[in-house]
Write a structure and sequence with these properties.
The chain has strands at 2-7, 10-12, 18-26, 30-39, 46-51, 57-59, 67-72, 77-82, 91-100, 109-112, 116-120. With 122 residues, it is mostly beta strands.
Length: 122
């Protein structure tokens, strides 16, 4: 099985910054797309951003210009640098990965982390 472990969440003031990490481990042959999602209480889980194995990125309009996703393929890890944080960024942030667990597998599988809490408040 593949495990994704998020870290770096916490409490920050509006305008502050946080850096989230997501490390993948387990039976991994290759990781393709990875991304960050978030969910606030009573709201739907929403896509924050994605990054391909080649480094191509996409961002939700709500975070564009403030958040940056990156990855370190050697460490099977992605990061989310969050700057100029706003109260509406408060949510549990989840890591997602599209993983090929063996070179003879026909397709990749999706895996999710357990989430890390980000709270932006004065």
């Amino acid at each position: 099985q593949v495990q994704l472990v998020e870290s770096g969440g916490g409490l920050v003031q509006p305008g502050g910054s946080l850096r989230l990490s997501c490390a993948a481990s387990g039976s991994i042959f290759s990781i393709y797309d990875m991304g960050w999602y978030r969910q606030a209480p009573g709201k739907q889980r929403e896509l924050v951003c994605t990054i391909t194995s080649g480094g191509s990125t996409k961002y939700a309009d709500s975070v564009k210009g403030r958040f940056t996703i990156s990855r370190d393929n050697a460490k099977n890890t992605i990061y989310l640098q969050m700057n100029t944080l706003k109260p509406e960024d408060t949510a549990v942030y989840y890591c997602n990965a599209d993983v090929l667990i063996g070179k003879f597998q026909l397709s990749t599988q999706q895996y999710w982390g357990q989430g890390t809490q980000v709270t932006v408040s004065s």
